[in-house]
Amino acid sequence: MDFGAHAGFILAAYGAAAIILGLLVLWVLLDHRAQRRALAALEARGIGRRSGPRADGT
Does the CA dihedral 8-9-14-15 come out positive or negative? Predict the structure, then answer.
């Protein structure tokens, strides 16, 4: 595959995009873990979820 005179720019752009996407995925995974820990701490304190089953069954 020949990228011509712009090979450096093209490869750098793909590399930067791959790194940024990887960092975003890592950020989401770490935030997910933090939110699960925060929710577990709240539930341990007796604060339940408001989105649970309602008293009228709906």
Answer: positive
Half-sphere exposure of 13 (CA within 13 A, CB side): 6
Nearest to 40 by CA among 11, 32, 3: 32
Confidence band, pLDDT 50/70/90 cuts, at residue 22 = very high
Structure tokens at 12: 């750098």
Structural tokens at position 10: 């093209």
Q: How far is the C-alpha of 38 from the C-alpha of 47, rounded, in Å?
A: 11
pTM of the model: 0.67
C-alpha–C-alpha distance, residues 40 and 34, integer Å: 10
Nearest Cα residue to 27 out of 35, 37, 16: 35
